[in-house]
Every structure is written in C-alpha cells, then in structure tokens.
Write a structure and sequence with these properties.
This protein is an alpha/beta fold. The protein contains 9 helices and 14 strands. Bound molecules: NADP nicotinamide-adenine-dinucleotide phosphate. Pfam families: GFO_IDH_MocA (PF01408), GFO_IDH_MocA_C3 (PF22725).
C-alpha cells in the first residue's frame, strides 16, 4: 500500500507508566546512562545499586542520588524494596546474574546481549518461565518510538514485499576498553553486531543459511566481520561489524514498493526516511543517545509487570534467542570460540 505519510508512534507517554523500584547491578558506564534516563524522563525510581565493591556502589549512589548502596550482587537481589533488577555487567556475567535475580524473586531487565549464546538465553528464559517473573533483554532500540514507526510501515505494506535488509555497526574504542578483552567476550559481534542481528531477524525472521568471514584484532579478539544470511521467503540480509572505526551505522530495508532507511545512528533515537518511486516521506525524531532513549524499555517493563505479564511483545525472549542463534553460527564460521578464553558458551 502506498503511504501518504509515515505513521505516528503508538508509544505511550513514559511519564504515565506506573513507578517500579529498580536495583542497578554493576555501576559502570551503561548503568549511569540508564539511571539518568529513568530519572529524567520517567517516574521510575532507582532505589539501590549493587557492586562487587561497596565503595564503588557508594560512589555511584552519591553521584546519582540513589538511596541504598550494597557491596555485593547477592545483597542487591535480597533487598525487599527492589522490584526489578537491571543487569548492567559485562556480557559473560549476564547468565548467572539474571538467574540470581530471578531466583531471588526479582523481575529482570538484562543488558544486551542477554547471554553469550542462544543456549544461555534459553537457560534464562527457562528460569523466567518457572519463576513467573518478567524478563527481557535490554535491546533498547526495539522500544524507541521510531521503531514502532518501522513496525507499522512494514505491517501496513508501505514497502510492498521486503526483499533484503542491510545493516552495519562499527565504532572505535580507546585502548583498554572491555571490547578488546577475550575474557569479557570482547569483539564487535556481541557488543555491536547484536543490533544488526536484532534488526534483520526481527524483520526477516530466523536465518536459514549463513556465510560469514572475520579477521582477528591484535588484542586476541575478533576485530571485524561480515555475514550474509538467507531467510524465509527468498529474503536476504547483509551485516557487518567492526571495532576498527565508525561505519554508516544505519539500517536499509529494501522492498518491492520502497526503501526505508533508519538513519544513523540506527540504534539511538533519530529519523527515518521512506523513499518510493514518486515520493519521499520522513519521520523526524530528534537524534538522541542512551540518556534520551534507554527509559522506553524500562517503562515498558513497568507496564507489563503491573499488568501481570512476564514478557514484552516488542522484544520477546524468543526474539533474543533467534538473534543469538545467528550470532552462534557466525561465531562458529569465523572460528571465534569463547571457550578458548575460558568462557562457557
Ligand atoms: N544499551 C547500550 O547502549 C549499551 C551501551 C554500552 C554497553 N551496553 C552493555 O552493558 C553491559 C556493560 O557495559 P559497560 O560499557 O557499562 O561496562 P562497564 O563500564 O565496564 O561496567 C560494567 C560494570 O559491571 C561490573 N562487573 C561485573 N563483573 C565484571 C567483570 N568481570 N569485569 C568488569 N566489570 C564487571 C563492574 O561493576 P562492579 O565491579 O563495581 O560491580 C562494572 O562497573 C555490556 O553487556 C554491554 O553490552 C549496552
């Protein structure tokens, strides 16, 4: 169907969501952005922070006006006044800490990637199902207003039939960053590539076949890779990710009736452009960053939990697993074996 204008996001006002009491696990970079985002744009309360070191928790609590600081993750999940834990540690700890939180009776929002592999994501999903608690991966783009516009354009047939999806994500990092550390599952795929994988699998479904190539970084992690995948209905995706520099960092969705571009930087708040034969339509969302976007996934959790639901349709645990299945196959083909770094896959 030829669209005359782009749809309006159906995203509810973040200020309307019922307030939950959040406990932040791992007071690092993303934890600070998340806390600022909740405090700026929502009525959610960050009531506690847990660190492996009490002074680090206390420092974060003082900087971000958080009333309780504890010196272990076990103490954090035992706090009676915490409703939901935000797991913000590096990826190899997500499995253990998501399960620690769920077993303690806490709902959980787990930073991406939810696990190192599809198998780990399935383990978390099984515990979430058994405990009957809310669990989601913090794939924040899927909760942004702009992604609801993408969803509606596709559902309304504004692209005709989708033929292919192309997405890349490259950045550069300072020396010493955790992305260069094999023991922290470094490399671009699980940190950056997880976004293109989420975009293409959410639009095209699970991969059928994969052809991937990658090259090592001198630090002993994969440095860059590209993968082409086929999906149901004769559709194709092409992704690339690198630690060596910034790429276009956009998503291009090619359909029989039009091309939709999620403009740079694809995973953050920002504009979209739909180009059809006789018209160009734009969705003008101000470009933003983590602080202006991380809260949408938190208020979605608050709404679902208050309604007695355990998952969000915007990014289900099944969707997380599907994206990680593609990641697993790419890692297998490029020879990126996390077990060599002493990690469990
Ligand atoms: N959504 C996004 O835009 C976004 C952006 C960046 C990162 N992330 C995700 O968030 C997670 C954390 O990334 P980050 O950049 O915030 O990392 P970071 O700055 O290094 O912080 C991670 C925190 O986790 C704790 N931690 C637990 N085990 C650790 C270990 N073995 N090594 C180092 N720290 C450990 C540390 O706190 P204590 O030791 O004090 O407990 C540390 O402060 C990653 O999984 C990443 O993929 C998401």
């Amino acid at each position: 169907m030829m669209l005359d204008s782009l749809p309006t996001p159906r995203t509810p006002d973040p200020m309307d969501a019922p307030p939950l009491r959040w406990g932040v696990m791992g007071p690092g970079w993303i934890a600070a952005q998340f806390t600022k985002s909740l405090q700026t744009y929502t009525r959610q309360e960050v009531v506690a922070v847990g660190s492996r070191s009490l002074p680090r928790a206390q420092e974060f609590a003082a900087q971000h006006d958080v009333r309780t600081a504890v010196g272990s993750y076990e103490e954090l999940v035992a706090l009676d006044d915490v409703d939901i834990v935000y797991v913000a540690t590096p990826h190899p700890a997500h499995l253990e800490l998501a399960i620690l939180s769920l077993e303690a009776g806490k709902h959980v929002l787990v930073e991406k990637p939810i696990g190192l592999s599809a198998g780990q994501a399935r383990e978390i999903a099984a515990v979430a199902e058994r405990t009957g608690l809310y669990c989601a991966e913090a794939l924040w783009t899927m909760f942004l207003p702009k992604w609801d516009v993408v969803r509606q354009v596709v559902e309304l047939g504004g692209l005709g039939e989708i033929r292919s999806v192309h997405s890349e994500y490259g950045e550069s990092f300072p020396d010493g960053h955790r992305v260069f550390d094999p023991a922290l599952a470094g490399g671009p795929l699980l940190d950056l590539g997880i976004y293109p994988l989420a975009f293409v699998t959410s639009l095209l479904g699970p991969h059928e076949a994969v052809a991937a190539l990658g090259q090592q970084d001198p630090h002993g992690v994969n440095g860059q890779l590209g993968a082409t995948m086929t999906h149901a209905g004769g559709t194709l995706s092409v992704i690339a990710t690198t630690l060596h520099g910034f790429l276009a960092n956009q998503v291009t969705i090619v359909g029989t009736e039009g091309i939709l571009t999620v403009e740079p930087t694809h995973h953050s708040p920002g504009p979209l452009t739909l180009r059809c034969a006789d018209r160009t339509l734009t969705y003008d969302e101000p470009r933003g960053n983590q602080v202006s976007g991380l809260h949408f996934q938190a208020v979605e959790a608050a709404r679902r939990i208050t309604a007695g639901e355990t998952q969000t349709p915007w990014w289900t645990l099944g969707a997380s697993i599907t994206a990680l299945e593609a990641s697993d196959e790419i890692r297998r083909q490029i020879g990126d074996d996390l077990r060599a770094a002493g990690l469990r896959e």
